[in-house]
Amino acid sequence: MACNINVESILGQGIFATTSSKKLQAFPSHNYKPNVISCVAIGPTHKVPQLPWKLVFHEKERPLLSNEKFGIYGGKFVPETLISPLTKLDYEFNSALRDPQFQMDLQVALKDYVGRETPLYFAQRLTDYYKSINKGIGPDIYLKREDLNHGGAHKINNAIAQAMLAKRMGCKKVVASTGAGQHGVATAAACAKLSLECTIFMGTLDMERQPSNVLLMNHLGAKVKSVEGSFKDAMSEGIRNWVNDLETSYFLAGAAIGPHPCPTMVREFQSIIGKETRKQAMDKWGGKPHVLVACVGSGSNALGLFHEFIQDEDVRLIGIEAGGTGLDSGKHSATMARGEVGVYHGAMSYLLQDEEGQIIGPHSIGVGLEYPGVSPELSYLKDTERAEFSTVTDEEAIEAYKRLCKLEGIFPALESSHALAFLDKLCSTLKDGEKVIVNLSGRGDKDAEAVFNHTPKHE
Asked: Where is the Tryptophan synthase beta chain-like PALP domain (predicted)?
């Protein structure tokens, strides 16, 4: 079977884009309909007005989790050489999900190593603050404390599970890419625990902004390799490194992006967040939350919280993107707000791209939100209008960081602060006593210097 995709485009050096239309037909049902195909794209590498690719379909046994595509999004837009390794990974992933011993071992690791379950914390003073500026009326605000996980973020949920899968598959080496460094730290920690060789690729710009996480990765025994650029460039280099050693290495995806099964795996291993949240909400007030809010870079923490509630249409799902210095400034990471459909890093989703179909460099003070694409599943949720998306600027995120520090004694990651900042717009629109849960996806000790540098010295 021939495949004339340019490999460099798929791995991120160029862009394999699709339609210039920002509006796609919404799908009539929010229910997922698993698509049991492997997709090999054969076609042009430039933006075109329609979807012209011929897709070669390989029928196969339906696995337990077979969401290769969410509507038109996702798929396997990869060179022929990667079809077999990805198919094997899909099989091993589903095999592990069916294995009671793997599931038991994972639950033990999540409890004893990661520190789950994480609290659903009632932010009393933050709640009082928003009520005080709205005539005493407002929602009750809860924080899902993923910042209390081992490593300080939600990333370890997925990293420990995939490292266990790599060990189960007999892999000796793990390769990963990281932006803010949280996935790198989580992967390095999981590999240290499981005695796996670990190599982390990180953009030079991100290494300069997150030196503490680089040190942690080194202390945990990982080799940290710099890549010119930012996370999108590190992602490309990580995939390229894996391709060169498919027999013994494992690419540990930290974001719900890339070719199938990577987005489904990351979402599945992060879905513990929403599952715990449902149980905790029932225990605390005997019902479901009214609104869930999470920041969105590529989408792993948002999907981790949202996925459990997708079928509960009375629960609003709101994703908050990085508005940077403003959407009109061009310095942002607002893929849902300003992106168009295209293919990048092996999957179809919304992308930030110019008229020529080339990637537009993203920007955010929250380094972990700097990615020009987004999860295929979130792209689908946008088109079906099951999830809502908004933006928050750098300055608004910094103010939210400071507010939570002063009111609750909790220092959130700047990524999570974007979700917190959206409360400024949300709270006045809700009824008194409605329940809002914000996913506090990480802690902000890594961001203290960045906030200080952006704070006027007289404050």
From this structure: 116-442
